[in-house]
Queue: 2 jobs
Job 1
Amino acid sequence: MFSYKNGEFYAEDVPVSEIADQVGTPCYVYSYKFIEDTYNEYKEAFSKIEPIICYSAKANSNLSILKVFSSLDCGFDIVSVGELKKVLKIGADPKKIVFSGVGKTKEEIIAATRAEILFFNVESVDELEFINEIAISIEKKARISLRVNPNINPKTHPYISTGFKKSKFGIEINKAFEVYKDCVNKQGLQVVGIDAHIGSQIFEITPFIDSLIKLIELADRLLNEGLNIQYIDIGGGLGIKYENDEQPLSKTKFANAIIKELNGKPYKIVLEPGRSLIGNGGIMLTRVLYNKIGTEKKFIIIDAAMNDLIRPAFYDSYHEIVTAKQNNSNKDIFDIVGPICESGDFLAKDRQFPSVSKDDLLVVKSAGAYGFVMSCNYNSRPRVAEVFVKGDKYFTIKQRESFEDLIKGEEVVDF
Ligand code: LLP
């Protein structure tokens, strides 16, 4: 969906230079076909068991992106009332919404219970009590699953590992049985499932299967106790290729291993993929501002910064960067950095890169997930535009922020 044709970088059938000229830089560009194909790959791989696929909206929650997922019949994993309102706004089916997160507020619980979502993934005993109280007070039953913490090492970046004992997420799996049994006496709750999410950007099958084994074991015990466990939610986390030597699991291999482990048991599988549905479906466009030769390093200074794409600064993550016009000049080693006043403001460190000049357009790849959604206004930089490409057409799906947007809600107090 993103490649060179005759020396020019294209998003589907649109040269990205055309988008940059029209919309300005930096901007994010997403491919419709990528989303459609990737979602269909998931569906196909899992067709034997027809799971409920709940796209994890936090990965990219632009309304147009959500709308495409919804029109493909995809459900949603949400973590805030903001995400709830967004997915309801684009017409999502509440029966395909699961609500995760360790700190759900009263407002969030009321809104999601009223909307009759599929279930809450409850992360603590306190939260369970609170949901029960609220559901009783509004004369509803809240469907719940407990997010258990299976104590599994997903072998990924520590900031995106969530299934360890020491992690803030979930309820320790050994304690979960008793917590579930207590739910029987709670009038506001209906237990429907079990959930775990062990981390993100995972390349191995074993952590997923080890987690699933524990979930099935617990679900079986609970069924024996008369609790009606219908769903096993295995979270998200499937890794994608950012660097050429990375080998992500194929969706088929992932699905087959899960189907095999489930072994015909009566649980409906729920999936919460985020990154693997959109990560490689987006790029960020940025222009070169300056070249700078320091005493020990060479820098390419670009108009995008850590506030626009924080992943390299935050997780030291790698994003491939290429020139929009194929450039075969000799390569040298550069840091590709933004204009922000922080040493951590880089998009690439010690990167082999051809020589470029002012205004050259660069393409930062694999920016569809956790890109725009993690951007902020640091250094009073307006958030950038987002563009959606379908075939040879493109649409601005989020306007670049103006100065007015930047100061919206601020008051000048005259002391
Ligand atoms: N379900 C839950 C409960 C989650 O917390 C997450 C991601 C997902 C599903 C989706 O995981 P995925 O399929 O995208 O791996 N900002 C980080 C990633 C943080 C992931 C947070 N939770 C990054 O840029 O790498």
Job 2
Amino acid sequence: MISFSLQPTTAQTPPAAAATATTRSFLLPYHCAHQLSSSSFPAQQLHSGRRQGYRVRAIDAAQPYDYEAHLVNRFTQSTKLKIAIVGFGNFGQFLAKAFVRQGHIVFAHSRSNYHSIAQSVGAAFFSDLHDLCEQHPDVILICTSIISTESVLRAMPLQRLRRNTLFVDVLSVKEFPKNIFLQLLPNHFDILCTHPMFGPESGKHSWQNLPFVFDKVRIGDEESRVARVETFLDIFKKEGCTMVEMTCAEHDKYAAGSQFITHTMGRILEKLELESTPINTKGYETLLNLVENTASDSFDLYYGLFMYNKNAMEQLERLDLAFEALKKELFGHLHEVLRKQLFGKAEEGGFRRPMLAKLPKNGTPLLPPQSETVANKNN
Ligand code: NAP
């Protein structure tokens, strides 16, 4: 930081300006001082302190009356982003509200017309992608269904964007968008893959302590590009999210064993058409909540979790095996009771209830439950 003042050397120095110069003090960032010295005034003026009626007088300088406002504006602009949400459905609208609340400028585009919804949340809606891109957003946020992402990205007029635009996605699977981005986006675009681990239902009251997963897939070295990513991540930090940096592959592994199982159980329970009763237990209430949380998401979303996460199939098979194993255990007990009734004490000690093994850990090859193998051997 450099601080100095330039004043006319003539006797007609306006008293007000002179007073201001001695009472107000500003610190100029180095580049501003440099700009002044190199463009507004010849070098000698600054070095010799005298020429054409100007000289360096004090370290406290009078600034234009709106100088502070100008600085504040510049600071605000550097922390506010122009975010273009592509895919303005359920989740896109939900995110937009938080972005607007934090003072960012939000543009939206979608297949359907969400003009009035966008207006009501403080965003500007563009039905034409070209028009949206010509706004030169800092961030393009892909918020479309997983299954439509590739076609949406292929249809983007990338040539209308600034060359270092940051692409972010919030898809619930991560390896798939990462690969599509790397494949379709020229090297000069930055890429950040994210997954807020909550939705309009689970995050409707607050995002406090809810996990936000991110992977900085490709970010340019320039300071401004690094800062832009941090500004974007700050939105979620400020809302209280727990920030979790991990690779897209790690995310997909964890998510298949947690999120996909959750959605699958929710959808199975939904098919049972569970109803509230006058004697709900806490556990049952949890199940009803699970149905509410998962059933409000589109089937496209659930299907995307299955189709575009290579770990999902294994989880579905494990669920199948677990259900079969559980039924066998139950029927084994039942069988034992029936045999006791039929044969009484005669068989005591002669019949052994089938011992059911636990499923192998995630990621290990799935074999039929041990009891089946034992039973087959005994046959
Ligand atoms: P979604 O059903 O996964 O996606 C709906 C969005 O996709 C809408 O904007 C829709 O546009 C667009 N879309 C669907 N088919 C399209 C097509 N053929 N061409 C162009 N656009 C198409 O529901 P969502 O809940 O809004 O989720 C959006 C994204 O956020 C998904 O990738 C999801 O995985 C992710 N996400 C969702 C949640 C959540 O809790 N909901 C949480 C985290 C992440 P129109 O509405 O204009 O038709």
